[in-house]
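Anyone opening a protein record will find just a pair of labelled lines. The record below illustrates this layout.
***
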Amino acid sequence: MKVVSLVHPNKVLCVESLDYSNPYDFTEVHKHDYFEILFIRKGGGSQLIDDQSFTLKDHSVFVIHPGQVHLLKREIAEGMIIQFGKGIFAHIFPIEFHHLLFTQPQVFVSEPDFLHLYSLIEQISKIVAHQEASGLSVFKSYSYVQIILISLIERQSVKDLKSSSIATRFLELLSVHIKDKKNVVDYMKMLYISGDTLNYHCKHVFGKTPLSLINEEVVKETKRLMLLGKHSIVEIAYELNFNSPSNFSSFIKKNTGKTPKQLNLYIKNLICLIISVNL
């Protein structure tokens, strides 16, 4: 499994051009351990985020969070990438890690809004590129990031802050514990709330029950492991702590309509569309 870290590990914030020289093999499917936000100024190409393929169009924005599987085929696309670790959230209160765990990676913005946000990224780029930037300048770059993130979060149609905070905190916990905790009760205990409360907030924000979200996350993690191509189906079953491959097979069939073998074939065909062009 290839897990990619920030290019400059001593920094919590990096800004790169879309065509920057990657320090890793960008032709292989990989995971990031940091957030990456792509602002596509000029389209041309495609990318894979988990099991979804997206066309790189003019003025498009994508948010990739830690743990997601990613592969980019840039072609002629131009733009900028903001990369940051969890450490940045100490500087951009009240935004927290879980506020960026969007259910869909693409964020739709108008052209004027895109151009405004892009101008802020250019300002950030100038600051982080300056080797002797003052402490105040660094915090100015964090303020620009805060404005950008708030603008993206506002476009997620959040119904109210309290429900959003609880529900997205639940999603954050899922992303960390999904391999060993698949019962709603486990998350109730970690969040110190009742089942009814958790159910209310999940339905209010996502229109789904906690159990449905847990099952979806198990399927997502299954697809990620298949995308990385390092595990057999039996190994994936045990990696996700199922009691047996047959129980895993029944779960996948019930929740996707496909057997694990059929799902694995679908995943392989999907990534071949992008990888074959990159090679």
Q: What stands out?
A: The mean pLDDT is 86.
